Amino acid sequence: MLSTVKISNRQMTIITCLFSIGTTILVAPSTLAANAQQDAWICALLGNAVGLGLAWLYISVGLFYPKNNLLEINERILGKWLGWLASCFFLFTMLLSSAQVLFYIGNFLKTNMFPETPIIALHILFLLVVMLAAHLGLETFARSIELFVPLLLLLFFSLIFFLFPSMEIENIQPILEADGKSLVKGTLTFASMTYLTLPTLLVFFPVCLTDPRSARKYFIAGGLIAGLKLSMVILVSILVLGPDGSILYAYPSYTLAQRISIGNFLQRVEAIVAILWFFTIFVKLSMYFYAGLISMTHVFRLRTYKPLIIPTAFVVAVFSLIVYPNTAYMAKWDVDAWFPYSLIFGLFYPLLLLVVGLIRAKTKPGRDPS
Amino acid sequence: MWGAAFVLVTAAIIAWFEVPKLVRRRYHRELVVFSLLLLLGAITGTLKILDVPVPNPGDWVKVILSPFGEFLQKLFE
């Protein structure tokens, strides 16, 4: 079903990049500044080094069987029953994450732009686009995202460029004041927010690529570009708002956009800059949702995922109000539960696949001709 | 009350449009999964609107992972 879909390596880089930026761009500055104050940007840069290794790990797992997606790899590496259980775990993660990401965007919109609108209306509107993306398939999705890349780059760099006048170098001084432990914690937090969700994309890559041989390079590049962009946002946020300001605001990168003021003329452009977040979150949510649908067909052995789009969206919409009842719960869950959960999903699970896969490849030299 | 009715009517409309297609194509497994998902959505949605506490999967994750989470917290303190 998926094998007929083909997208180019560049499109994969774009999807990987926007997927990793995802919701992280909204909350990363405050979470990291809470860990390491003015040294948060150092954490982010170190986190990219960790992320490099993680991206390498994921694409290595994917390239074990370049003609199978993650769920088939589960079965081929872990065996029928264990593989099925791993797929169930994957499906659960996808649905949970979809609901959570949906709450993220709904909460952001409600807080900043639509205070009177019921949050479920925003969720349903956003989900309609995601359902359409899932209905039209990955090829259409990748092409339309590719179209928007120049716009997104323009928005991103204009955000940074227009903030130059309000940057103050004193805000990041003294450099390296944070002690080793908070630096390590910040680094791991950054890696967990940015990179540990990437196994999701193994459902599509490298199966859906026209040229899987060079996939490794392009996949890692996508992750790294995302990490560097996020590091830039964090650095700018600390330079402009200071460490305390970055912690204080729920959405520091949005507050940054509000601070733009060029000659008392170019002001209040935050809504335009918010388009950037819409796109990254749209990519993230669509990928979670789509991967959820695909994993559903594998878990329940179905022929097509198309009839399931509407009921799954229904479930996701309902659970988006349940998984995070309020912002305080969200903040607590993201610290207490997300970090260990993402370690299991993004580190132990792919590591298990890699190790067992390597052992299998050694004992039984019957790998896929790639 | 109206919200709950709205959820149920929405679920009914979805079923009305989708089920005949599935039956016609003899997609029986798909039909079962479709119905289960729709029921899950409709029931939890109705309960949520009627302010009945609905179990939160996030809580399960939190409970299951709490030993591991505490271990990690100790590591960084």
Task: Write up what this structure looks like.
The complex is a heterodimer of chains A (370) and B (77). Chain A is globular and about 65 Å long. In chain A, 74% of the residues lie in helices and 1% in strands. Chain A has one domain: Amino acid/polyamine transporter I (Up-down Bundle), CATH 1.20.1740.10. The model of chain A has no long low-confidence stretch (mean pLDDT 88). Chain A contains 14 helices and 2 strands; from the N terminus they run ααααααααααββαααα. In chain A, a hairpin with a 3-residue loop joins strand 1 and strand 2 (266-267). With 370 residues, chain A is mainly alpha-helical. In chain A, strands 1-2 form a two-stranded antiparallel sheet. Chain B has 77 residues and is mainly α. Chain B contains 3 helices and no strands. Classes of the chains: A mainly alpha (370), B mainly alpha (77).
Q: Can you describe this structure in just a few lines?
A:
The complex is a heterodimer of chains A (370) and B (77). Chain A is mainly α and 370 residues long.
Rounded mean pLDDT score of chain A: 88
The biggest chain-chain interface is:
A-B, 35 and 34 residues
Count structural domains of chain A: 1
How would a crystallographer describe the biggest sheet of chain A?
2 strands, antiparallel
Structural class based on helices, strands and sheet pairing of chain A: mainly alpha
Low-confidence stretches of chain A: none
The SS-based structural class of chain B is mainly alpha
- Measured between the Cα atoms of the first and last residue of chain B, the distance is 49 Å
> What is the level-2 CATH architecture name of chain A?
Up-down Bundle
Number of strands of chain B: 0
- Give Rg of chain A in angstroms: 20 Å
Report the top-level CATH class of chain A.
Answer: Mainly Alpha
Mean pLDDT reading of chain B: 89
Largest sheet of chain B: none
Number of domains of chain B: 1
End-to-end C-alpha gap of chain A: 19 Å
The CATH fourth-level homologous superfamily of chain A:
Amino acid/polyamine transporter I
User: What order do the SSEs of chain B take from the amino end to the carboxyl end, as H and E?
Assistant: HHH
Membrane topology (chain A): Multi-pass membrane protein
Transmembrane segments (chain A): 12-34, 40-61, 81-105, 117-138, 145-167, 187-209, 271-296, 308-326, 338-359
Main location (chain A): membrane
Pfam family, one (chain A): Spore_permease
